[in-house]
Structure formats: structure tokens, C-alpha cells
Specification:
single chain, 464 residues, alpha/beta, nine-stranded mixed β-sheet, 12 helices, 30% helix, binds zinc ion
């Protein structure tokens, strides 16, 4: 047997197993996993001594090249996917937004064009539905068949993204019928709108009021309501960017009852807190995203949620806006600050560092949270999300004990600050492969913009 690439002397870590083995790759696919594979004729031999050979990370929540509040997120599909690759992520699922009056297909085609010729790693799309008529309900089935097998709905941002409960229920019913999965932004938008208007009327316009007008109860209420709507529709539901213990409790209760309820959290909720909003001057704007940062005690609850499988995944909600000129749009009014923060590059290191080195879970659980579970829930498995014969050779040679201090000075995201500035992480990617090609080699990008491919995802089968 001949290979294009052989990875030797590594320790393979999957969601279930840890063992020493070589990996043989041909035509971008893993074709052999065994000890002492022959290297004759291989174009490339990678020595994985002292590293874990893990599946490439899957980030199912990113917003590249996304218009918001009169500006556009700072990373496009080129800079964003290159930054993701540096962090060990080899597949992402971004969001194609259907604006009012549009078909879902228009949204899908618009975002396909944004990614084409630019993405350096593989990608898929969820479709954000903001206008749901009978035509769009029909279209949901057609899109599932083309590999867009998940949808995102909003219970917040009335007048922009928010859908009423009846529409959400209809969309969930359609998703269940067609084998799709609904991703839910769960916050009570009606109440938040009133709180925001009240704050502005009282002259409370600083960045921290973004957080103070979006209480945890608003998130918990919507989380519980979305679970109830899904239960009535006989549909699964995936809660995006869960940020607080009250919402986590709703998910835990639903899962204890055996409902197909899933949720992700993001590194910012694990590492940052409301205290960051008190940064000097206008700098709290760097942490304006939705849901907002919470009191510090929620962090440990979320870590425990990840350890105990009440949370199934960690994604980034990467939606970068530069501090200069973009965040500054809201200098006199927090409601004008573009919502979002940069994180696509540091998810793997932050989760490994706090999760595994923090003594909260095993390297296998880490792989499950950042790759395997996202792959299974979103129809990418077993092509992606594991190290197995027949899977794409999307792999990370990960140095579990190497340290790195996160800084905007060294990161690859096209944004002028880091939310995690100065945080020391332990566990960093050394070599990253996308379908067998080395795209990052010891901190250097060696891939190509445009070599990433759109991945047609399978229908929802659950976390089996
Ligand atoms: Zn988002």
C-alpha cells in the first residue's frame, strides 16, 4: 500500500479512544491506521512524536463577511478561514442570512459566492430564516436535500430577525419532516427591547448597558420556550451560544426528560465575565455581543455543563468588528455598537487549556466537544469529526503541553484587538491538515485561499 502522506509515531485521540498508531493518507482521505506503516513512495512523512493526532476542529457557529448595523464583520472567508486553520479548525459552518422578501435559495447563493475562491478550509452553511411564508417552508426541504440541513431562528431582535412563536413552531415542524435541525437564538426579544428603550431614556448609553439590558432570565425563558415549541413540533432543537446557568438548567431538565435538546456554549462565556464590560473608556465595546457576558460564577457552571454532557459543543460565534471605526460606531449609544466578537482562532486552545489542564474533562471529551459532536449533530460525520479509515484527512497534530499567550499582536484574525488578550493557554496545534494537505506548519500558513470546499451535509440523525 502506498500513501501520499504518512503521520508517524503519534498518539491518536478520538472522542472514545487514545492509542499509539501511524496514519496513512491517500487522495485526501485516511486510508490506513496501523503501527509501522511503510513510508516508501510517500510524498510527505510527518513525525508526530509527542503530539496528539486529533480530528480537525469543527466550528459550527461563525459569521464571516456578515453585514450588521451598517458595517460588515471584519474577517471574510479568506482571513477568517486562515485564522481558523491556525487554531486547528478545519471545517466551519457559517450562516447564510435570508432577508425579508428573499427566498432561502437567494440567501444560500449569496453566501456561496462570498466563500468561493476564498475559503482555505471546508465549510457549510446554516440558513437564517427571517421571513417565513409557505414558499420558504417548502424550500426548507429542497435546501436540506442540497446539504443545507440546519436553520437558525431568532427569538430576539424584533423587526429585524425575530420570528413569532407560531412561525418558529411551523419551521420546527418542517425541519422535523425534512430531516433538518433548528438552531435557536434564545432570548426574549420583546422584553429586551423595552429594557433597552428604558435605559436609553434614562441616559444609560455606555457599553455595559448592552449587558445589563439582556438579563439571564430573558435567555432562560426563551430557552425553555424554544424547548417547549420543539417538543410540540416533535423536533430536535439546538440552542446556540448558551451563556448562563439559568438557561443551562432548562436544557438539563429537557435532556433529563429524554428530549432531543442540544446546546453549545462559546469560549467567551467560559473565560470572560461582566467585569470585562467595565474596561476603561469605551473599551467595554470590545465585549459587546449577544447574549452578553454574565457574572463570573456562571463560568464554572458552563464548564460543568460541558463535562456532564448538558452542553454538547463549543463553537465561537466568531463575528469580529474592529475597535477602531466599527465598535466606535456606538461611542455615544451602546445600541449602535456592532454586536460580535472575534474568537475563531483560539477555540481549541482555550477549551483544551481550561477543560483538560483545568482537570474538568479528558482529551477524549475535548475531541467530542470541538469536533465529533458538532460533526454528528450537523450531518458531517463520519466524513469529518473523527480519525477513521474513510474519513477526510482533516487532522491536527496537537502539542498538549505547549504554552501560548494570546494577543492581537500575533493572531491572524483581521481585527485590531483580542477578547482574550494576555490569557496564557496550554495546548496548541503544531501541524494542521485539510483533506491531507498541510495548511498550517508550526505557525506558518501553507495552504491556499480557495482550496476549501463546500460540504453537503447529511440530514439530522442525532448524537448517536
Ligand atoms: Zn451568532
Amino acid at each position: 500500500m502506498r500513501f501520499d502522506t504518512v503521520i508517524r509515531n503519534g498518539t491518536i485521540v478520538t472522542a472514545t479512544d487514545t492509542y499509539a498508531s501511524d496514519v496513512g493518507i491517500a487522495d485526501g482521505t485516511i486510508v490506513a491506521i496501523a503501527k509501522d506503516l511503510p513510508i516508501e513512495g510517500a510524498h510527505q512523512v510527518l513525525d508526530a512524536r509527542k503530539t496528539y493526532v486529533m480530528p480537525g476542529g469543527i466550528d459550527v457557529h461563525t459569521h464571516l463577511d456578515m453585514p450588521f448595523g451598517g458595517t460588515t464583520s471584519a474577517d471574510d472567508f479568506e482571513t477568517g478561514t486562515i485564522a481558523a486553520a491556525h487554531g486547528g479548525t478545519t471545517t466551519l459552518i457559517d450562516f447564510a442570512i435570508q432577508y425579508k422578501g428573499q427566498t432561502l435559495r437567494e440567501a444560500f447563493e449569496t453566501w456561496m459566492k462570498k466563500a468561493e475562491g476564498k475559503a482555505a478550509i471546508d465549510y457549510g452553511f446554516h440558513c437564517i430564516i427571517t421571513d417565513l411564508g409557505d414558499a420558504q417552508l417548502e424550500e426548507m426541504g429542497a435546501l436540506v436535500r442540497e446539504g443545507v440541513s440546519s436553520y437558525k431562528l431568532f427569538m430576539a431582535y424584533p423587526g429585524v430577525f425575530m420570528l413569532d412563536d407560531g412561525s418558529i413552531f411551523k419551521a420546527m415542524s418542517a425541519a422535523a419532516k425534512y430531516g433538518g435541525l433548528i438552531c435557536m437564538h434564545a432570548e426574549n426579544g420583546g422584553v429586551i427591547d423595552v429594557l433597552v428603550k428604558r435605559a436609553l431614556a434614562e441616559g444609560k448609553k455606555a457599553p455595559k448597558y448592552h449587558a445589563l439590558t439582556r438579563p439571564t432570565t430573558a435567555e432562560a425563558e426563551a430557552t425553555g420556550r424554544s424547548i417547549a415549541l420543539a417538543e410540540m413540533a416533535g423536533a430536535p432543537v439546538y440552542i446556540v451560544h448558551l451563556s448562563c446557568n439559568e438557561a443551562l438548567e432548562k436544557v438539563r431538565e429537557a435532556r433529563d426528560r429524554g428530549l432531543p435538546t442540544y446546546a453549545e456554549t462559546c469560549p467567551q462565556y467560559l473565560y470572560l465575565s461582566l467585569e470585562n464590560m467595565n474596561a476603561p473608556g469605551f473599551e467595554g465595546a470590545k465585549y459587546v455581543f449577544t447574549p452578553p457576558l454574565r457574572e463570573k460564577w456562571h463560568q464554572e457552571k458552563l464548564w460543568q455543563g460541558l463535562a456532564k454532557d448538558n452542553l454538547q459543543a463549543v463553537s465561537t460565534d466568531h463575528c469580529p468588528f474592529c475597535y477602531k471605526e466599527q465598535k466606535e460606531l456606538g461611542k455615544d449609544d451602546f445600541t449602535k455598537i456592532p454586536n460580535g466578537g472575534p474568537g475563531i482562532e483560539h477555540r481549541m486552545s482555550l477549551v483544551y487549556s481550561g477543560g483538560v489542564h483545568g482537570g474538568r474533562f479528558s482529551p477524549n471529551r475535548f475531541v467530542q466537544l470541538v469536533a465529533t459532536a458538532p460533526a454528528k449533530l450537523f450531518g458531517l460525520y463520519p466524513r469529518k469529526g473523527t480519525v477513521a479509515v474513510g474519513s477526510d484527512a482533516d487532522l491536527v497534530l496537537f502539542e498538549p503541553n505547549k504554552e501560548h499567550v494570546i494577543s492581537a499582536k500575533t493572531h491572524h484574525m483581521r481585527v485590531d484587538y483580542s477578547m482574550f488578550e494576555g490569557i496564557r493557554v496550554k495546548g496548541v496545534p503544531k501541524v494542521v491538515l485539510s483533506r491531507g494537505r498541510v495548511v498550517v506548519d508550526k505557525g506558518r500558513f501553507t495552504g491556499n485561499a480557495g482550496s476549501g470546499q463546500f460540504v453537503r451535509r447529511q440530514t439530522y440523525v442525532g448524537l448517536k
